[in-house]
Specification:
Elements (H helix, E strand, L loop, with lengths): L1 E4 L6 H5 L5 H9 L12 E4 L13 H31 L5 E2 L17 E2 L8 E7 L2 H28 L19 H24 L4 H4 L2 E2 L7 E7 L4 E2 L4 H17 L4 E7 L1 E2 L5 E5 L2 E6 L4 E6 L6 H6 L6 H11 L11 H8 L3 H15 L3 H33 L4 E6 L2 E6 L8 E3 L10 E6 L1 E5 L1 H4 L5 E3 L22 E2 L4 E6 L8 E6 L5 H10 L4 E2 L1 H28 L4 H14 L4 H18 L2 E3 L3 H6 L4 E4 L6 E2 L19 E9 L5 E2 L11 H9 L4 E3 L2 E3 L2 H10 L2 E2 L10 E4 L8 E7 L7 E8 L4 E9 H7 L9 H10 L2 E10 L6 H6 L2 H4 L6 E9 L1 E2 L3 H10 L3 E5 L4 H11 L11 E7 L5 E5 L5 E2 L1 H12 L6 E6 H10 L2 H4 L3 E5 L3 H12 L4 E5 L5 H6 L2 E4 L11 E3 L5 H41 L5 H18 ...
Parallel strand pairs: 8-23, 25-39, 25-45, 39-44, 40-43, 43-44, 45-46, 46-47
Antiparallel strand pairs: 1-2, 3-5, 4-13, 5-6, 5-7, 7-9, 10-11, 11-12, 12-13, 14-15, 14-16, 16-22, 17-20, 17-22, 18-19, 18-21, 24-47, 26-38, 27-28, 27-37, 29-30, 31-32, 32-33, 33-34, 34-35, 35-36, 36-37, 40-41, 41-42
């Protein structure tokens, strides 16, 4: 006989009609029994002894699970044996390294015309040949079928749990296919583990699945190629800490151990029209060379000399063009765009989606399918939304990348109209003005053009392009910074005007590159295959996931121990705990803040191409700025605004000239501002030494040249048929005669000046004029022509904020003919010692109106601002002073020391106040005194030459954060300077996407103040050319980072509250109702979203938000709140059990004993006082946690400014308060709190004198409690509600007072990071 202790007093008839009471359920499971006939039931005896059930692991119910796994494992093992045996017998090579081809494989293609692409496209690639065969295809089909069968099996088990198949069941003793729930649950658990192992295995081999189910064969027999590319180390963020470093080291060792150091891509081998085999990988075509036995990426070199280019201007033959098409492919960027279905497959194959799927299977099975379906919808909708955004961005890039039109091509000595996709390197095309972009990179060989390159290089004004000279002694340089920049046309630019060399002659250009190797193609590749960045936030997140999983397993064991059972139901309770600790929503909410910030930035004209860079930007400590156009006002003449509407106009304001007077010795004359008073030589230089051309009757070109030429009020004539290479300038003042420009050598960065050869018809003499930086012109001029104070005067003008250029002139001998002069090389014309210095030309650098305010905001926000410019060092220092980069403080006026290279190749330092020269040791002594507070503040400014010398000496890193201005920096110098800063701090770069594109891409956070297509290499681009865009970016980024942490801590608290309070509930074997669980998870989703709607603070704080998920501040916050919540949870239980001896002893004998309940029906464990009390406290704690983490005035606007959260929180808080305090009602009964059956409420009214309603909508007919209700007295409800309010107040005091104020300061003192101090 089994004895049942029913410690309550009730009418036996009531017990009989309550089929879920312990007396009934226990005895009914054991066999027939009779209740005692007495009116008071205290003990009942069951007539039979419960049989002991033994699960048979080889029972038929388990066979489906065993069979699916065993059969598939056997099949795959057999396939593995067959595959390895066949490959061993075939003796195929493991891989083929890509290297330069030793010989051409087309006899009529000369070796000098054909060469592999630069090493950047081939380094680290390994090719392995594979071929599909029926055996591998069959094995892959079995994998797909098995995956499908697993899903079918889990679906059947879930549906059987709800007795969906009852009418199809052959069993008479049960409604379930699997006989009883214990057996069903055991089969589900076994199947669940198999499915987890199965899908994790598939994820592990996902990248190699295509090749694994194919047979490895020699490359010559392959139909597909597995391309393995060594994964580049991500860009490392400075000061990431011990944990992040440990994670990186662990990952590196794990990849090495698992031999997973390469990314794997399987691409099909395709065939050209003549049967040549090739593959396409990362937009580049690799052609198989049968002689070298490898795939090679090929390009066709044009030139190599300027004379060769002119010889090649006769065009290609059709046969030659066809052969070149075979090698380099059509003029398109070969990137296989994802379809919606392939993108969905990539998105939902992530490792966390596997976790989410398996978690939801448990929820669906164990009676929580309501919320399981909701979360399934949320996760799928989130994934589909990400796919949609990804596909939109991909299509945008590809639409920018490829353009299909028509072009005139010189083939077989005849002009043919072809599609742009049919153009190959070496083709000769006709350059015409039009509304379509140029489809190739090319070099002009006849005629000229005016091009709009703003979409590529960020050049604000149209640029003039001229034909290369027919000079066999000069090598052609294709690079953007090479000597032929003025001759090169870039794919993606617009041709505004074609300028034929003669009447009826076309403008000719030789194609130098097509497809992915063009200027535009490289931009597209940078977008499609970006550089990975390692951020401390992401590194800590990996550790957090691992820790949470371990903690979840520990809580699983504790749950089983507290429940006092080891059955299948205990496993489900434990898995529920794991899914709560590691919420399936955690990855989603961490990026919601980034998405919201990105949307807000886009409304402000700031576009983001990499969401991860938003949170990274929240930690920016150093901001680097180019000067020109970023800090200074670019003044535009009104006439320029009438030019082509696609142009962005900008320029400097012409100020004055200062000529050199020869009378009485070489000395400077007065500063002149009236053009009519300028000396003839200066006027001629201004009229001719420029790159200006006329478009629509208006001058266009470099903004400095345009502004200078505008002052002359002259006109430029077109070249004539008799003199096709000449340009005539027609002055309109001073009765100056027309001037012929015979030859022009354009400005290049390496020279920093330009040269023109002109003929003055008034005297028939020819002159050479030079214009460029003072330093370069000074070095090339005759020393006797320089005034003694030449350098000091130039520096003085620069120090006053002028952009200073120098003019020089050389008069050719009268006996020199035009033919002889035009035949001279640039070196001949510029021969040192023959050029005479004639004066200076000054332009005014005006600050943008908002520059000083923006920089002040950045400095106030804790950022160090630095100038990296190509301009003169004195100009840079002047602008830095004007805009507030260099400013005095309470320690005194800042002393600026200028560092430049002397003639001996050493760095000398100059005191800007007295002009004295200081050696290196003297500078270091002054700097040391300043750092120690014994001297006034000192700032350094260095030139590019000094920068490189100091870098080579190893001293630049030590001086880096004392250097404010980096002047005369080349594009490569800018990249190196940014990278040096990145070694010590999170660094941002602000530029225009032109010659600073490399620095923008290299920086942790790059923002281009341009809409040019080249700006896409930057992580952000702004339509507004204002430095306040940088301020807005930091405000939003800091807010996004802080919000991500708030969301992270909220979901951690969600899990820990449920875990710890769950242990208390498990101790009493109680739970919450389904509706209460739905309320918890249903409120978590909107509250998580509402947290991300917080707006940024009105201004930048002096500190940056933490990025360390495992940092002291984060750990103190989370652990402290957990401790407080546990204390209040214990307090609630103590308060409830205290009611057994006070307040009428209403809780006496009403304690819940769940040992006789079926815990599988967990929702029935809520109909008691313990479940209602702890359940309400749990919901309050979770909802209040969201409110706590919405607090933040440092990086986010105040609590009440996030009105979306305030509305959501208020509604949920009001709902919980009503449910807690109200008498029995419909809403309370929905959540099984303060509710009961009609009979139970009637008995309660009779016994206590209350007047609760016994008839309302939703009143239950059955309540799973001994007394039929769990209505708490009003005094206890009020105390419980006040306890929840007190819990909230304690959390506010702890988070606001301890963590965000005292705790933050204490943690920074107790656990200081590797921070360094610097002047902002």
């Amino acid at each position: 006989m089994a004895t049942v202790n029913a410690s309550y007093t009730q009418d036996p008839a009531v017990i009989v009609h309550e089929p879920n009471l312990p007396v009934w359920t226990t005895c009914a499971a054991l066999g027939p029994f009779d209740l005692a006939t007495s009116t008071t039931v205290v003990f009942n005896e069951c007539a039979v002894v419960a049989p002991t059930r033994t699960l048979n692991p080889v029972a038929p119910e388990y066979l489906a699970t065993y069979c699916i796994m065993a059969i598939e494992v056997i099949l795959l093992f057999c396939y593995y044996l067959a595959k390895t045996t066949r490959e061993r017998l075939s003796q195929s090579k493991p891989f083929l390294d890509v290297g330069p081809a030793k010989t051409p494989f087309d006899s009529d293609v000369e070796l000098q015309d054909m060469s592999p692409l630069p090493n950047r496209d081939t380094n680290g690639l390994r090719f392995t040949g594979y071929k599909r065969d029926p055996l591998g295809t069959s094995a892959s089909v079995t994998v797909a079928v098995t995956s499908f069968l697993w899903m079918i099996l889990l679906t059947v088990l879930v549906l059987d749990y709800y007795a969906v198949f009852s009418r199809f069941n052959f069993r008479e003793e049960s409604d379930l296919l699997f006989n009883d729930h214990e057996l069903l649950s055991t089969v589900f658990i076994l199947s669940w583990h198999f499915v987890v192992i199965w899908f994790l295995g598939l994820k592990f081999i996902q990248d190699k699945s295509d090749s694994y189910f194919s047979r490895r064969v020699p490359i010559t027999e392959a139909t597909m190629v597995q391309v393995e590319k060594r994964m580049a180390d991500p860009v490392t963020i400075a000061n990431m800490g011990v944990i992040a470093q440990w994670v990186r080291n662990f990952e590196a060792k794990a990849r090495a151990y698992l031999k997973n150091e390469h990314s794997v891509t399987v691409v099909p081998i395709q065939m050209t029209s003549v049967g040549r085999r090739y593959i396409e990988f990362e937009c580049v075509r690799y052609v198989f060379d049968e002689r070298s036995g490898s795939f090679q990426p090929y390009s066709f070199a044009v030139g190599p000399t300027l004379g060769d280019l002119h010889q090649q201007s006769v065009g290609l033959t059709t046969a030659e063009a066809h052969r070149r098409t075979e090698l380099v492919g059509p003029n398109t960027i070969a990137f296989p765009a994802d379809t919606f279905y392939t993108a969905i497959g990539k998105e939902f194959s992530g490792i966390f989606y596997v976790y989410q799927m398996m978690t939801l299977w448990i929820w669906m099975y164990y009676g929580y399918y309501y919320m399981g379906l909701v979360l399934t919808f949320v996760i799928i909708a989130s994934g589909v939304s990400k796919v949609r955004v990804y596909l939109t961005a991909q299509r945008r890039v590809l639409s920018m990348a490829n353009f299909t039109g028509i072009v005139n091509v010189l083939r077989d000595d005849a002009w043919k109209t072809l599609s742009t996709s049919d153009v190959v390197p070496g083709d000769v095309i006709e350059v015409v003005a039009g509304e379509h972009v140029l489809p190739v990179d090319a070099v002009l060989v006849d005629g000229g053009a005016v091009c709009d390159e703003s979409s590529l290089t960020g050049e604000a004004l149209p640029v003039v392009k001229v034909a290369v000279k027919n000079d066999a002694s000069v090598l052609y340089q294709r690079g953007d910074g090479g000597a032929n920049k003025a001759n090169n046309l870039h794919a993606g630019c617009f041709v505004l005007e074609a300028q034929p060399a003669g009447k009826g002659r076309p403008v000719l250009a030789v194609v130098t590159a097509t497809g992915a190797v063009t200027s535009k193609g490289r931009l597209v590749k940078d977008i499609l295959f970006p550089t990975r960045v390692s951020f401390v936030f992401q590194e800590h997140l990996k550790v957090v996931f691992a820790v949470l999983m371990v903690w979840g397993v520990i809580m699983l064991v504790l749950s089983i121990l507290l429940l006092g059972t080891t059955g299948a139901d205990a496993w489900f309770y434990g898995m529920f705990t794991i899914s709560q600790i590691l919420s399936p929503l955690l990855p989603a909410v961490l990026v919601i803040g980034q998405s919201v910030a990105s949307e807000r930035l886009s409304k402000k004209g700031i576009m983001c191409v990499d969401l991860d860079r938003i949170t990274l930007s929240g930690k920016v400590k150093v901001y680097c700025f180019d000067k020109t156009g970023k800090c200074t006002q670019l003044i535009v003449h009104e006439s320029l605004k009438k030019s082509a509407g696609t142009l962005t106009k900008e320029g400097l304001n012409f100020l004055a000239v200062q000529p050199v007077l020869s009378s009485g010795g070489q000395k400077y004359g007065p500063v002149l501002t009236d053009y009519t008073s300028f000396p003839t030589s200066i006027r001629t230089a201004m009229l001719t030494c420029h790159s200006v051309t006329m478009v629509g009757g208006h001058p266009v070109g470099n903004f400095v040249d345009v502004e200078m030429f505008r002052v002359t009020e002259a006109k430029i004539g077109r070249p004539t048929e008799m003199e096709p290479q000449n340009t005539t300038v027609y002055p309109t003042t001073n009765n100056d005669s027309e001037i012929h420009i015979l030859k022009r050598f354009e400005f290049v960065h390496s020279n920093a000046y330009m040269t023109v050869l002109v003929k003055d018809p008034s005297d028939g003499r020819m002159y050479v004029y030079l214009k460029g930086s003072f330093e370069k012109i000074r070095d090339i001029c005759d020393r006797q022509s320089l005034p003694s104070d030449a350098e000091s005067v130039a520096r003085k003008h620069a120090s006053e904020g002028c952009y200073v250029l120098a003019f020089a002139r050389r008069e050719l001998p009268a006996t020199t003919s035009v033919q002889e002069a035009t035949a001279f090389t640039r070196a001949d014309l510029e021969r040192a010692g023959t050029v005479q210095f004639i004066g200076l030309c000054m332009f005014r650098n005006e600050l943008k109106p908002d520059t000083a305010d923006a920089l002040h905001e950045l400095r106030y926000g804790g950022c160090r601002v630095v100038m990296i410019t190509g301009d003169n060092i004195d100009t840079g220092v002047f602008v830095a002073r004007q805009c507030g980069m260099i400013e005095s403080n309470e320690y005194g006026t800042v002393l600026v020391l200028l560092g430049d290279a002397d003639a001996a190749g050493r760095v000398s330092w100059k005191n800007t106040e007295d002009g004295s020269t200081i050696d290196q040791s003297g500078m270091l002594a002054i700097l040391a005194s300043s750092r120690g507070g014994n001297y006034r503040p000192v700032e350094l400014a260095v030139t590019g030459k000094a920068f490189n010398i100091l870098l080579a000496e190893g001293t630049m890193r030590g001086l880096l954060f004392d250097t404010r201005v980096f002047a005369r920096m080349s594009p490569d110098d800018k990249v190196m300077c940014v990278r040096l800063h990145m070694e010590r701090a999170i660094t941002a770069m602000c530029g225009d996407g032109g010659n600073d594109a490399g620095a923008l891409k290299a920086a942790h956070s790059g923002i281009a103040l341009s809409e040019a297509e080249s700006s896409v290499v930057a992580h952000f681009s702004s339509r507004e050319r204002s430095i306040f865009s940088c301020v807005e970016l930091l405000r939003e980024a800091r807010c996004a980072l802080d919000v991500s942490f708030a969301s992270y801590k909220y979901l951690i608290m969600y899990g820990e509250v449920l875990a710890f309070m769950g242990l208390i509930q498990y101790y009493f074997t109680v739970n919450m109702s389904q509706a209460m669980w739905i309320l918890i998870d249903g409120s978590t989703v909107p509250l998580s979203w509402a947290l991300t709607q917080a707006k940024p603070a009105a201004r930048l704080a002096r500190t940056r938000p933490t990025a360390r998920l495992l940092g002291p501040e984060t750990l103190i916050s989370v652990i402290g709140m957990i401790f407080i919540n546990v204390l209040f949870g214990i307090g609630a239980v103590v308060m409830l059990f205290g009611e057994r001896t006070q307040n009428g002893n209403w809780f006496h004998c009403n304690e819940f004993d769940g040992q006789y309940y079926d815990i599988r029906r967990w929702w029935e464990l809520a109909d008691n006082f313990e479940g209602a009390t702890t359940g309400m406290l749990i919901v309050f704690q979770i909802v209040n946690a969201a409110a706590i983490f919405n607090i933040g005035r440092v990086y986010r606007a105040g609590f009440w400014r996030n009105w979306v959260f305030v509305v959501c929180y208020s509604i949920i808080f009001a709902l919980l308060s009503f449910v807690t305090l109200a008498d029995p009602n419909t809403l309370g009964c929905l959540f099984h709190t303060n509710c009961g059956t009609s009979d139970a409420l009637s008995r309660l009214n009779s016994s206590t004198g209350t007047s609760y309603s016994t008839s309302f909508l939703g009143i239950p007919s059955t309540y799973y409690a001994f007394i039929g209700h769990n209505v708490m007295p009003m005094q206890f409800r009020i105390r419980l509600w006040l306890l929840c309010i007190g819990n909230l107040f304690a959390l506010v005091v702890f988070e606001w007072g301890v963590v965000l104020n005292f705790g933050r300061a204490f943690a920074r003192r107790r656990w200081p990071q590797a921070r360094f101090s610097f002047r902002q």
